[in-house]
Structures are given as C-alpha cells and as structure tokens.
Amino acid sequence: MLQQPEPLDVAFQALSDPGRRAMVEQLSLGPASVSDLARPLPMTLSAVVQHLKVLEEAGLVKSQKVGRVRTCSLEIGAIAQIEIWIAERRRFWMQQYDQLEAYLAQTAPQEPDQ
Length: 114
What we know:
The chain has about 110 residues and is an alpha+beta fold. The chain has a domain at about 5-75: Winged helix-like DNA-binding domain superfamily/Winged helix DNA-binding domain (Arc Repressor Mutant, subunit A, Orthogonal Bundle). It has helices at about 5-15, 20-25, 35-40, 45-55, 75-105, and strands at about 30-35, 60-65, 70-75. A three-stranded antiparallel beta sheet has the order 1-3-2. About 15% of the residues are buried. The model has no long low-confidence stretch (mean pLDDT about 95).
C-alpha cells in the first residue's frame, strides 16, 4: 500500500523548481494574473499554467477566475507551516552552535599571564 506524501514534503517538492520559486516570490508582493506571472519567465504560458497547478496542489497558491482573467495569490497558511518548520530547524542548530561554542571555550588552552 502506498502512503500519501506529507504536506510539507509536497510543498518542498513544489518549491524545488526555480521557476515555481520565482512565481512564489512574485506572489509574495501581492496577487497577480497568470499572464503577469508568465511575463518575466523564460517559458510558455502553458508551462506557467502547469507549474501553477503544482503549486496549487501543494497548497502554496490559490487561484480565482473572474471573467477571462485567472488571478493567483499565496496561500499564507501553507507558507506559515514552512516557516515554522524552518524556524524549528534553525532553533535546533543555533542551540548546537551555542553548545559547541561553550565547549570550545571550556577546553581552550589557557594563555599564561604576563
């Protein structure tokens, strides 16, 4: 039986592509149409739509069609989950570095007084 991938795994997989990261970065400035997202990218509009589908399936982006224009925006909840995960890793490694620094300070050879 196949297991469903975790949401965080799907999100990081979606963000592994530089084009999709560029779209997320552009959407961090505010909602944008698919055409606006495609303009600076070296890919066809069809490719942009496929990449947006990956981002939507990962829960990172939502889109809404009004008339003939599809507008995309970031899904803040999913981005917040990624931020929390990264902050937890950062906190862990900062503690490790602090412990290493304390250990090195304790074990450093003492300089003789002159």
